[in-house]
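Deliverable D4.2, example record:
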Amino acid sequence: MSHDYAKNSPEAMAAIVSMAMIVDAEIDDREIEVLDRYSVYALLDIAPSTFAEVFEGYLEDLAGEGPAEEPVTTVDRERIDHLLAAVDDPEKRILLCSILFKIIVADNQVHETEAVLFNHILEHWNLRFEDLESDVATMD
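Output generated by the structure prediction step:
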């Protein structure tokens, strides 16, 4: 199982961002550029080095979840819900979803796993895309 993070902590939010960056099983340079372009580190109140540690920890969690001979599953409802439970502040949820949207569309295509994850997060947190529109727009 994945790490446990303090409620609404920068690390908890960074883990969710990490999950979105790797859910399609690829790390695209354009997704990484989003972190700088939209000042994601500052928005999450986390140092880039700490974000990198959380990202690395998330990858380690993924790699350690099953038998070595089996492929890693990037979309696992239990893991996703565990991470989502660490953020219960409504404003932070909206901020995170806005960041995730920017990451998901960064490579100009939305992979099925990205869409499934994003829709699950919106549903899990009882949000609609309309709830994010002003945040997404102000990030540009």
